[in-house]
């Protein structure tokens, strides 16, 4: 019985080897096939490969290619035409015999990386849109060219001519080779920001109009002191003389001064409020004077009426005696 069992075991092994021999080829030289008896390469596997370690290879004349049956539908990781010279390594989908139609190119000699194109002119050159969920960090300029390219149609975010000195950062649309014609300039050493000007003199300098729903100005010099009892102000006569001489109110800049130096909204609002408060005091003072005049006039009217009544009585008395 044991001999019969041993015979069948040996027969099964021989049968399995024969079946494997029909699908696998391990010749002493030539091509090796696993899952195929007609390998077309040094090693051809008809099926999946599972590895538990790294794949280390020296690519000296070819690329690593995963194909669905034709070169035009291949996924390629490997060298460019001159990898031996350190030009580039390509990762991408082949578009034909020359697989330069798409994919990622890693350039060794220049250090440039191209996505969607094979002639990157910068460290990262993308022929298409970029979407990022993180921050963009850099030490140079960030430039976005219009489809036609060229400096006049370029959006710049980055350094000015002397960013290494902390002068300024520019954000705006270029107006020529010297891109100082428009945009926003953020000055680092002074903390100044310019819109439409590259020479801001304040924290925010705007060469143009500003439209806003609300502007809040903080000021500590609010003129409540005008209502203090010891506050001195010009008399109306003195005020009239000043206006006739200077053609503007005291403490208010002239038209020429505003045109030359501009004006501070906070300071000007404070000065205008001071004039309104002083005007209010002038009105209160004049109202008191007017009220006093009304009282005096009423007294005069009452005295006149009393005198008139006395005169009429006296006249009637004289008329009665004359009869």
From TrEMBL:
The keyword Signal applies. Keywords: Signal. Residues 1-21 form the signal peptide. This is Peptidase S74 domain-containing protein.
